[in-house]
Amino acid sequence: MSMRHSGIGMTSQRTRMRMVERLREQGITDERVLTVMNTIPRHLFVEEALSSRAYDDVALPINFGQTISSPWTVARMTELLRANSSLGKVLEIGTGSGYQTAVLAQLAQEVYSIERIGSLLTRTRIRLRELRINNIHLRHADGLLGFPEVAPFDSIMMTAVTTQVPESLLEQLMIGGRIVYPKGSQKQNLCVIEHTSQGFIETILDEVKFVPILSGVISK
Ligand code: SAH
């Protein structure tokens, strides 16, 4: 961790503990998720000018018109994806800051994460390398196509909102696996899709607010 962050690092330990207590009060019950979020330095995933607000329960801008999801959103989506069992091999669509990716990596075997904005991914790649998280594989591509070369996945998380999960992603989900994503457009809700031997079962949950999923890639 670089020197310029070390001062913040000292105080953020306590701030992080308070964040975790708040998450518990807000109904997060998966202790493994809470433990992981207690260890990951969230302030390193936002611009330095915003690092004092990194542990507040808000989404913050991360450039290119994108946002890092709020702590509650990250915790809730991770707990829904885990459902108290192993995450196994995970596909994440929308790497963004890489914070959610880092949380997943501590609870999964391997995490494959796809981001469509090249410059955003370049920065995130450096950040995750500095934190020495080694079971993350980043890819600059359109996540709507999934990652057929390494499919099928045990778990898939989308961190941008869509009205419908594309067929290509459903096909890359193992039987017994699940997808968590924000569903909708104006009004949005977290949604869980379970892949059973009988087919796909969808459950609509908490109301949320996400940036939209877009197709295609941009290099800048
Ligand atoms: N989990 C991230 C969320 C970032 S916002 C974080 O907390 O930092 C959602 C991200 O999804 C953005 O970075 C956006 O560029 C990306 N995204 C949107 N559509 C995409 C697509 N089709 N493929 C890959 N990434 C996409």
From TrEMBL:
Entry keywords, A to Z: Cytoplasm, Methyltransferase, S-adenosyl-L-methionine, Transferase
**Which residues are responsible for catalysis?**
S69
Top-level lineage group? Bacteria
InterPro entries recorded for this chain?
Answer: PCMT (IPR000682), SAM-dependent_MTases_sf (IPR029063)
EC numbers: 2.1.1.77
* Example of a GO cellular component annotation carried by this entry: cytoplasm
Protein family: Belongs to the methyltransferase superfamily. L-isoaspartyl/D-aspartyl protein methyltransferase family.
Q: Enumerate the Gene Ontology biological process terms.
A: methylation; protein repair
* Reactions catalysed: [protein]-L-isoaspartate + S-adenosyl-L-methionine = [protein]-L-isoaspartate alpha-methyl ester + S-adenosyl-L-homocysteine
Which organism is the protein's source?
A: Nitrosomonas communis
Name of the protein: Protein-L-isoaspartate O-methyltransferase
As for what it does, the entry says: Catalyzes the methyl esterification of L-isoaspartyl residues in peptides and proteins that result from spontaneous decomposition of normal L-aspartyl and L-asparaginyl residues. It plays a role in the repair and/or degradation of damaged proteins.
